[in-house]
Amino acid sequence: MSTSDVVSSIWADVSGTQQPLGDRGVVLTAAVAVLLVAVPAGWGISRHVVTIAHEGAHGVAALLTGRSLQGIRLHSDTSGLTVSRGRPSGPGMVATAFAGYIGPALLGLGAAYLLGRQHALAVLWLAVLLLALLLLQIRNFFGLYVVALAGVAVAAVSWWGTGQVQTVAAYVGTWFLLVAAPRPVLELQQLRRRGRARTSDADVLARLTRVPGLVWVAVFLAATLGCLVVGGRWLWLAA
Fold it and tell me: What residues pair up with 69 in beta bridges, in sequence order?
């Protein structure tokens, strides 16, 4: 099969529609996502996905606001670091710092919108594209390993999985982003309360805007919960 044939095949799949899961499928995939977030063993692994989305959102915001993206690092303890160059203050820096905690929720909301129109395979291939672009910005070995592993896994399901498997994977991934997004915000506030997060996004925003860090945490939480409610409703109506 030639390259043009492969591209044409992928585009046909991406632009096409797939069958919705139905009420039971939506509930079951949501339950899987909740378990991945609520069970410590599952969260210890799945949190890396949230970190990928978090740092990727920082990177996208930096580029969109005219900053120079220097690179992204992902660490085995599920933390990450995005380095950009530009003015140390101003709207660009504020937008870059703000994007991280709401990034996973916004990705989940976008995926829910596509699933609401039965574009499950488009969700998977879009994830592959975003992971491939992110891979170009990774600057450490563990980060390369995690992003490459995630990209290969999603690409394998997108290419070789049956239609039902692809739809289930898209729903689980979407539910996971929506359900998982508020948890790091709550964990952030716990760390701030103990005085262990003085360089967090909320505290950076507090220094940039003179708005208290607790207010920014509340904004993060409201945004992530809002995306969960709206995205969850779209997924349910699409059943």
Answer: 84
